[in-house]
């Protein structure tokens, strides 16, 4: 996922203007998703139309939106609607701010042209006309400054909305959407990496015995342990009590050592109820690790292989990791 939302917003507006596409929420969302790197397939499809200097028509844009953005990718049904709504909302506000700035600039140009014509036809009142022009210039400058300040605020809000859309609400780690985007980036760059799926053992009994609030605190604690042990690699909540760790440019043996350090830390932690200090007992997790390279047919195939190793670890007694 790109980390330069300000530049992407500017690139999106420039792309729409270059191709004479109206800055509607749908067009903005389409081009922003393509330029952000969050949707590699959409980016390639848009580039295939425009790379040879051919203008993207509104029909092209509508067809791409229908093909790539109206149907949600698997596993994103819980996250994508909120993100899409936030993005559309910010797109409308940014479009309004840009249009306001354009109106101010256009009106100022017309007024200057009119004043210039008066200078030629009424040279006796040069001082008065120049004073009027300076006053209009200051007014236009203030209005443009206000419009740009609003645009900067909206950019900040857009960045915050995008960041929130990539975070799991319980653990504050990357969510499934962000993990899939990162895997797509690695695949596109043909970078080898190791996938580790970690699943908390007997987590249902924690929820059933102590409630979901305690269960969420346990998940957050395990997420923190994985993040610390695996830094600077990407760690996220895959769903439920499952975490996904993506270790880029790492040998399988090194990745297993890292996951084992996290597993031992979690198993050695004594969890207690916050209100009463009552011990919860030992919490452990099991993990399956696989190497991913450019011979794999997408991340989904690697995830299936890692999942099979995870359940093998479960069947062999839990609280262990298996790499292959």
UniProtKB/TrEMBL annotation:
InterPro entries with a match to the protein in the record: Diguanylate_Cyclase, GGDEF_dom, Nucleotide_cyclase, Rev_trsase/Diguanyl_cyclase
Higher taxonomy: Bacteria, Pseudomonadati, Pseudomonadota, Alphaproteobacteria, Sphingomonadales
Gene3D superfamilies on file: 3.30.70.270
Keyword Coiled coil: yes
Name by which UniProt lists this protein: diguanylate cyclase
Coiled-coil ranges (or none): 130-168
Record-annotated GGDEF domain positions: 191-324
EC number: 2.7.7.65
UniProt cross-references to Pfam families, sorted A to Z: GGDEF (PF00990)
Keywords: Coiled coil
């Amino acid at each position: 996922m790109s980390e330069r939302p300000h530049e992407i917003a500017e690139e999106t507006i420039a792309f729409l203007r270059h191709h004479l596409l109206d800055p509607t929420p749908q067009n903005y969302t389409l081009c922003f998703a393509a330029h952000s790197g969050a949707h590699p397939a959409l980016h390639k499809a848009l580039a295939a139309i425009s790379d040879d200097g051919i203008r993207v028509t509104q029909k092209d844009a509508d067809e791409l939106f229908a093909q790539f953005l109206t149907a949600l990718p698997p596993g994103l049904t819980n996250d994508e609607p909120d993100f899409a709504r936030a993005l559309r909302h910010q797109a409308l506000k940014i479009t309004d701010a840009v249009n306001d700035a354009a109106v101010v600039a256009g009106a100022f140009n017309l007024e200057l042209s009119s004043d210039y014509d008066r200078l030629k036809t009424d040279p006796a009142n040069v001082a008065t006309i120049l004073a009027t022009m300076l006053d209009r210039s200051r007014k236009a400058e203030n209005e443009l400054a206000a419009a740009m300040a609003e645009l900067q605020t909206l950019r900040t809000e857009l960045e915050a909305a995008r960041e929130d859309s990539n975070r799991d609400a319980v653990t504050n780690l990357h969510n499934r959407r962000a993990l899939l985007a990162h895997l797509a980036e690695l695949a596109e760059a043909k970078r080898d990496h190791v996938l580790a799926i970690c699943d908390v053992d007997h987590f249902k009994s924690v929820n059933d015995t102590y409630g979901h609030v305690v269960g969420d605190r346990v998940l957050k604690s395990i997420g923190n342990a994985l993040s610390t042990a695996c830094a600077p690699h990407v760690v996220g909540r895959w769903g439920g009590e499952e975490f996904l760790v993506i270790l880029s440019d790492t040998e399988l043996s090194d990745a297993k050592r890292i996951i084992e350090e996290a597993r031992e830390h979690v198993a050695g932690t004594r969890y207690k109820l916050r209100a009463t200090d009552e011990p919860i007992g030992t919490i452990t997790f099991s993990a399956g690790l696989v190497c991913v390279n450019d011979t794999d047919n997408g991340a989904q195939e690697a995830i299936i292989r890692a999942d099979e190793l995870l359940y093998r670890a479960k069947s062999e007694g839990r609280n262990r990791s298996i790499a292959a």
